[in-house]
Design goal:
The protein is an alpha+beta fold. It contains four helices and nine strands; from the N terminus they run αββββαααβββββ. The N and C termini lie far apart (36 Å).
Length: 186
């Protein structure tokens, strides 16, 4: 895969984790969303995060390693962690970790096969449909400057597209973990 396509893997893994979380919740009142670029939220609480490290060889993606963290049976969190939740807190049920591990492989394989088949449009539509606060006017901070904005979607290369209250379109590049605070929901 060309280097310019590496965000497709982020989309596919995020969709797989979101599908796994949804399958565990079995509730229409709990909305699972992808907070750009790769956190999984239930309503306004973070339940999972994904880190993907890509190894590049020239202009080609040689391989990737995806780390997936899902709060499953945790009921207490460090107070400095903003808005966390877990499957147990949301459902009241305890989960067998080995079963969860086996179950997440199903959507991971599903979206991997979609990538292999070149079904980029299908992946893009699914990712944008699950995008946290998409289409909702929200109080934001972009580069430390407060504004109101509406998330419109994500570009092919993974840029977040935001229409701000000034009428200008802002795009935010996918950032390294240390710079994810580039965009803050207020």
């Amino acid at each position: 895969m060309p280097v310019t396509g590496q965000f497709w893997l982020t989309r596919a893994v995020a969709l797989a984790v979101a599908e796994f979380v949804s399958s565990c919740l079995k509730s229409d009142s709990l909305k699972v969303a992808i907070k750009w670029p790769n956190d999984i939220y239930v309503n306004d609480q973070k339940i999972a995060g994904i880190l993907i490290e890509n190894m590049l060889e020239g202009s080609t993606l040689k391989y990737s390693v995806a780390g997936i963290g899902i709060n499953i049976n945790q009921t207490q969190f460090d107070p400095s962690v903003p808005n966390p939740t877990s499957l147990k807190l949301l459902t009241g049920n305890s989960f067998i970790l080995e079963d969860c591990l086996n179950r997440i492989f199903i959507p991971l394989e599903k979206f991997y096969l979609e990538l292999r088949a070149g079904n980029y449009k299908k992946i893009d539509e699914a990712y944008n449909n699950l995008l946290y606060r998409r289409g909702v006017l929200s109080n934001l901070s972009i580069d430390g400057k407060p504004c109101k904005g509406t998330i419109k979607g994500v570009s092919e290369t993974g840029q977040l597209l935001i229409d701000t209250d000034t009428g200008e379109r802002n795009t935010i590049e996918p950032l390294e973990l240390s710079n994810v605070k580039h965009l803050v929901f207020l």
